[in-house]
Amino acid sequence: MRRHNGLKYAVIIASLAVYLSPLVWVLLSSFKTESEMFSIPPTVLKQATIMHYGRLLTQTEFPRYFWNSFITATASTALSLLVGVPASYALTRYKFRGADKTLVVILALRMFPPIVFVLPFFFMMRAANLVDTNLGLIIVHFAFQLPLAIWLMRSFFLDLPKEIVEASEIDGCTRMGTFLRIAVPYVYPGIATTAIVNFLFSWNEFLFAVVLTRLHAKTVPVFMAESVTTFQVLWGQMFSSAIMFIAPVIAVAFILQKRMVVALGGGFIKS
Amino acid sequence: MKRESNRPRKMAFPSGHALTKQGRLFGLLLTLPALLVMSGVIVYPLTYSFLLSFRRIDIIANRRIWVGLANYAHLFGNPVWWTSLRNTFVFVVAAVAGELVIGLALALLLNGMPKRGKTLMQTFFLVPMMIALVIAAMMWRWLLVDQYGIINYLLRLIGIGAPQWFGRPFLAMAVLVVVDWWVAVPFSMILLIAGLQNFNPELIEAAKIDGANGRQRLFGIILPLLRPVILFIILIRTMDAFRVFDTVYILTGGGPGTSTEVITSLGYKLAFSGLKFGETAALSVVTFVVIMVVSVVFLRIFSSGDARAARGRGKSRANEHEAERGIECADTTA
Fold first, then answer.
1. Mean of the pLDDT values across residues B191-203?
2. Which fold would CATH assign to domain B78-278+302-333?
3. Average pLDDT of the segment spanning B15-27
4. Could you report the predicted ipTM of this complex, rounded to two decimals?
5. Which of A89, B56, B250, B327 is the most exposed place for a label (fewest CB within 10 A)?
């Protein structure tokens, strides 16, 4: 039995190594000199250099695009929680007329192909003079995050024991007080999960970012995509910006392991 | 699983106590901002797209001209539309099928691990899923570069020639599919692990004692029990795969020729290279209808599956119930 387990772990480690090898290879490449990068046969890493990172931070606009990505993701996530959490609570608990239907419609919204929204958003933003602004992209990302937030939070509010809410209301807490002081603290883990899901959506989103930004509000994925559309690919720049862009996300993932599993399961896994 | 087990599950929308008028008002008040936002940024754009699909935008005169169904006629007369529709379906089927098989293999591998190590391992496997598709595509492009790409080097090393990955239709599509596997396998993996966790391990042990071999255990016990989870993964991932755009944009640009053109990349080109806004709107309306049809078909399969499960609830009833509980979708679609 023991040996059998040993074999199993070996298989797990081996598949993990194969699975993550593309990422590891890019990580190694990001520390290579220009000549080693293109050497044949390829070498693992002869001489490490942080040249590409240095150039990225000093000679390109990367820091600014990174900031754009961060601001867009943070603001749209915050908005989606601010509007989505109360709505989700009300739809789950105060069953007013049409509440069930509203929830079904919200779920259906998840299925719309984004291409349907590209033109309307483009013209709306142009009319409002919001093309190439952070605010424009924030609004668009928010539009996609809101249904997701309502839907994700619903499953957490369903777990809120009725007795707690009733006790609080009997004790003279107002409805708003019950919501803010009882319900919201109870679903903190759910809020964290929803925040991760929505942040990642905005952080990684490309289609609307490329349609709605030009120079100022560009996010990192758009910046990176541009390094291929020209005649040559700026590989050194590509590697360093890729690593810098995904490093924070991966760091957070390892800090919040369990929550990350729940979040990336789309909120469909309970833990 | 910290969900209270004594709470009746079917209470999908607990209304608490009898609602007073103020209660309803309060509920509406909390929902109102969301409803307003959604009508502004979702209902309005959809209507806009629909109306635009019957018009032609004259950019120079800045006017919209009613053209009836001309945009739809153009779209259906455009062979690239049919190619991209077919390519999208090929991509969706290959991507989702592969993700399920690989995800299941990994889930079965990881399932037996002790809890602590398992969460850490899961997190490691989750890493590619957190990478933006644009970046994942760039990484693979680097791996597949003709002369100095590592994959071609390894292929040459073992004596297989190094193909022009993006020069041949089949290979280009295969690369898109593989990149999608790389990014999306963790999703099915973690959902399947959650599904596996929820059934009673004694069941499999009992089958082992009764002499069922590995294949019998897989097809006779594990897969039937995972059925709701698997259907659910197919539903969600199909919707996602239909949107494929980022990887096409970075890796193939729809080429060679139109062999990897997909719905979204075609729409993007029509709108922003061809400035055919009306035709793009028509494309999005048709895409919307296609997706609706596909999801209705899926939901049919889904609910008939649930009905069958309900009919056949014999001794495995408790386990199925448990399996469903791990997956939130059981609440919503059943």
1. 82
2. MetI-like fold (1.10.3720)
3. 67
4. 0.89
5. B56
C-alpha dist (Å) from residue B287 to A141, A195, B48, B137: 21, 30, 15, 24
- How many Cβ atoms from other residues are within 10 Å of residue A254's Cβ? 13
Residue A246 to chain B, least CA–CA distance (Å): 6
Map out the domains of chain B as residue ranges. 78-278+302-333
Q: Give B24-56 pLDDT, tens digit per residue.
A: 788 888 888 988 888 888 788 888 889 988 988
Contacts of A153 in chain B (CB under 8 A): none
Does B60 contact A at CB distance below 8 Å? no
- The partner residues of B66 in beta bridges, in order of sequence, read B55
Domains of chain A: 1-49 (no CATH), 62-264 (1.10.3720.10)
Strands, E, within A186-225: which ranges?
none
CA distance from start to end of chain B = 20
Taking residues A218-240, what's their average pLDDT? 84
Chains A, B: CB pairs < 8 Å: 307
SS3 category, A111 = coil
Q: Quote the pLDDT of residue B246.
A: 92
Report the run of H or E that residue B63 belongs to, with start and end: strand B63-66
Residue A96 pairs in a beta bridge with none
* B134:A124 CB<8 A: no
Question: Which of these, A150, A15, A166, A133, lies nearest to A79 by C-alpha position?
Answer: A150
- Dist CA B181 CA B187 (whole Å): 10
